[in-house]
Amino acid sequence: MLSIENLHAYYGLSHVLQGVSLTIGEGEAVSLLGRNGAGKTTTLLALMGYLRPRPGKIEFRGRDISRLPPYRVSRLGVGFVPQERGVFPSLTVRENLTVAARGGARAPWTLKDVYKLFPRLEERRDNRGNQLSGGEQQMLAIARALLLNPRLLVLDEPSEGLAPLIVEQNVKVAFDVADRHYILAKGAVAFEGATADIRSNDQLVKQYLGV
Hints:
Blueprint: E1 2-11, E2 14-24, E3 30-33, H1 40-48, E4 57-60, E5 63-64, H2 70-75, E6 78-81, H3 93-98, H4 111-117, H5 119-123, H6 134-147, E7 152-155, H7 167-177, E8 180-185, E9 188-194, H8 195-199, H9 202-208
Parallel strand pairs: 3-8, 6-7
Antiparallel strand pairs: 1-2, 1-4, 4-5, 8-9
Helix pairs in contact: 4-6
């Protein structure tokens, strides 16, 4: 589904990503773990086309997307929930959800489906985006990405705002949800493996995740 190879990225002169490589298979859930500043968000921004790899290669379903702008990456089937959510403040919940929905009534994800997943959104469907709590905005951002019916769903800090989670709890959530995990440290992959491989390695968790 996705292949990232030797990805380097910069903010100005700051060399943030230093050779990140990872893969995600069809139907697989993969987490990207690491302390603040490790390069997690930067990796996702590069994947979505907001940052240009210098150097590096990103392939989605066999197609090189390394130089594509964000809207073209999205049209190819990559849904993205950014850390800042990107909710339209003046639109209602329903308008936020339907403004970019794709696929029609027979699509895997419909408005009815996301209301079932997040009942609170149906209750607040006529409220504007700027009238929602942080957790409600996070639900809305995730639901909106699902309505794009993407082949790959990318979420940056998806549990933020949904509960007062600390780092240790976030790691536990990742262990419960994902099949495999990549741990980033100083802009590079420090470890890759299954949940059991990380859970059984207390030193690894302490060294790179600080929990």
